[in-house]
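Most newcomers find our protein records easier to grasp once they have seen one. There is nothing in a record beyond a sequence line and a structure line. Getting from the letters to the tokens is the skill we practise here. An example says more than a description, so a record of this kind follows:
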Amino acid sequence: MEYQEKLLTREKVFRDPVLNYIYVQHQVILDLINTKEFQRLRRIKQLGPASFTFHGAEHSRFTHSLGVYEITRRICDGFLRNYPTQEASDGLWDDSQRLVALCAALLHDIGHGAYSHTFEHIFGTNHEKITQEIITSPKTEVNQVLSKMGPNFAKDVASVIDHTYSNPQVVQMISSQCDADRMDYLLRDAYNTGANYGNFDLTRILRVMRPYEGGICFEINGMHAVEDYIISRLQMYMQVYFHPVSRSMEVILDHLLRRAKELSANLDKNDSTTPYLLMPFFKGEFDIDDYLKLDDGVLNTYFIHWIDSDDKVLSDLADRFINRKPFKSVEFNDDTKDLIPTMRDYIKQAGFDVTYYTEINNSFDLPYDAYDPNKKHHTTQIELRRNDGSMIELSKISQLVSAVTGKHLGDERFFFPKEMLSVDNNVDLFEPVYQEFQKHIKNDELIN
């Protein structure tokens, strides 16, 4: 369906450290940015607890969402200039799809919550479903803005997030193995963490990207730019997203919220320290209004209060999170995983509640996933367009990508309190326990 484009009298710009300028040309985009639901994203960090490891990673979901919008806008501009549709079903770009694409790009993360991934894990929320609810609920400012475009516009935008929108080109702009979302967060996260190996040639990739009837493909002469993007993504996952200290802080955050949830049943409703904004989630009876009241700052405020809690576990975990006292961890494998109960026993002997002071955490990622007919869920593979117009899947022609295709890269780690690695030769009651514990660790790995 075509939607009327109301252009601003003069385009607005956001100065951006990664993309230089972000251009806003449509009234609907500016109005969406100014909604309270979108402004909330300023108060949610893009990388959550990773800023405890990479101190520059203070950027927000707001900045990332603007970036995804801008990259999508550039894709639309390139498609309109070089591949405009000439007739129905020719597989080229129909620019009447632009506004749906731009709005979906801007709003794709609007449902993320405070410390989103950890919060989702504990309270069973789903940021994609909540994103769709924010877009379609008449109660939100976002929906009120979208509804001015037409009665079905909000539903169309939500269907892009849900991957059910009728035009696969629009869906793949926002969600595929080489999309505006991934390209922005890799560049933005690399910039803010200082991890230069996350950089790749965005200009070249946008130059060789083109529409076809099945979605989006890439000219074969741009293969090396796409390879570089895949390897950059691999490096960012291994070095940044899966960093042991960041995962440690996520473990502490997870256990902190779990302890608070466990204690919530006995909270005094008249107690001034009762976390009222979290109570709907502790009870499992929250709605969209409850969800939108939360951000990283709200949770941090409660954590600061909890440092003074009478509950020693809650108090200690809050202190460890707020004041950056990460757990330590060791890598383990199939040959050493049987040692974990023994290690937990040592930790228990040292006076720690193993429910809250130990964790097994695994982080794995597929750098690239080719189509497999035996899989239930399929990702959109990267197609290269040859000179004769035929398509070939990336890993079939790239030895570099083929080497990492379908391989789950990452590790499994056992997390525990740093105190277990104490080396002080003093009169500590638990010194013999520490020594026995440490006999099973060498070179950051669990050993027999």
